[in-house]
Amino acid sequence: MSGSLAASGLSVRYETPHGSVHALRHVDIEAHPGEVIGIVGESGCGKSTLVTALANLLPANARIAGSIRYNGVDLTKLDAHRQRLLRGDEIALVGQDPMTAFNPVLTIGDQLVDFQHHRKDLSRAQKRARIATMLGRVGIADAERRMQSYPHELSGGMRQRVAIAAALLTDPGLLIADEPTTALDVTMEAQIIHLLRGLRREYNGIIIVVSHHLGVIAELCDRVYVMYAGEVVEGGEVDAIFHDPRHPYTQALLACDPARFHDRLDRLPTIPGSLPSLTQPLPGCVYAPRCDRAFAPCGSIAPPLTRLTACHAARCHAVTP
């Protein structure tokens, strides 16, 4: 049964031999059944850490603070056994590399049967029938024959489709797609986008799509959270983020989108500077060193989250409602 998701004050740090890495700081997000939520930002901004935390798959050296409430239950308070049960029944994660998503020595059919291990009410034949139906649903023709295939016999796009089918076979209330098109060529990327767009029409759970590809987010999502250096710096409905961005980082990110340029460029635009160190978080605004609108308070005072509309907010001193 689908439920709402809300992360509040979510912080994650990794303990390493070189000190603590503050990968997420005070993140607040929410999502409701039927919504597709986008998470966007540069590499290293914390997108994958966020969704790994939502799926309760953080590594052993991670330390988490804050809460993640799904269907009224705080996931951070569950023991390992209950976390595993929840991932099997309610939360599914589709990774970014379809090459490593499956065991190379088992057929696709056998692996997808195993994915339904929690369905004690179904026989093996019934599980295989569900697989055939689901493979057809994600656009794989001749499903019975494909179930006899090994992963290496499928193209990258087909493996990613099978990975999405595997996730949907668990009937999740929360489906997380972490960079689902990164490892694919342009043609396969278009097919996966088309598939996810179709799913959003018929699937009443929550879908979270993580991507650095702004076009993917614009096509698929209802609402977007923009991340920078471990923080959510802006969030809102997709039209507001793409047509009325208010945070300087969101504006700079959109200005660098190659899809906005119709003429050939010798050099693509970039955001000057680089991400700050996550081992020693800045006392003020994390974006201040790269921001052309920074002024005195930005260097020493963390900006508040300014509510612009009921569904649009930005974390910036220079933003006013």
Question: What does the model show?
Answer:
This protein has 321 residues and is an alpha/beta fold. The protein folds into 2 domains: 5-90 and 172-315, P-loop containing nucleotide triphosphate hydrolases (Rossmann fold, 3-Layer(aba) Sandwich); 101-171, no CATH class. It contains 10 helices and 12 strands. The strands form 2 sheets. It has an 8-stranded mixed β-sheet with strand order 6-7-8-3-9-10-12-11, with helices on both faces. Strands 2-1-4-5 form a 4-stranded antiparallel β-sheet, covered by helices on one side. A hairpin with a 2-residue loop joins β9 (223-228) and β10 (231-237). The chain is globular, with a radius of gyration of 21 Å.
Write the layout of secondary structure elements.
Elements lengths: L4 E12 L2 E13 L4 E5 L6 H8 L7 E9 L2 E2 L5 H10 L1 E4 L13 H7 L9 H14 L5 H4 L9 H14 L4 E5 L7 H17 L3 E6 L2 H7 L2 E6 L2 E7 H6 L4 H8 L49 E5 L2 E4 L6
Parallel strand pairs: 3-8, 3-9, 6-7, 7-8
Antiparallel strand pairs: 1-2, 1-4, 4-5, 9-10, 10-12, 11-12
Helix pairs in contact: 4-6, 6-7
- Give the neighbour order of strands across the main sheet: 6-7-8-3-9-10-12-11
Mean pLDDT reading: 89
Shape: globular
N- and C-termini, Cα separation: 37 Å
Number of helical runs? 10
CATH superfamily caption of the largest domain? P-loop containing nucleotide triphosphate hydrolases
CATH architectural name of the largest domain: 3-Layer(aba) Sandwich
Work out the radius of gyration: 21 Å
Fraction of residues in β-strands: 15-25%
Task: State the major sheet.
Answer: 8 strands, mixed
Uncertain segments of ≥5 residues (pLDDT<50)? none
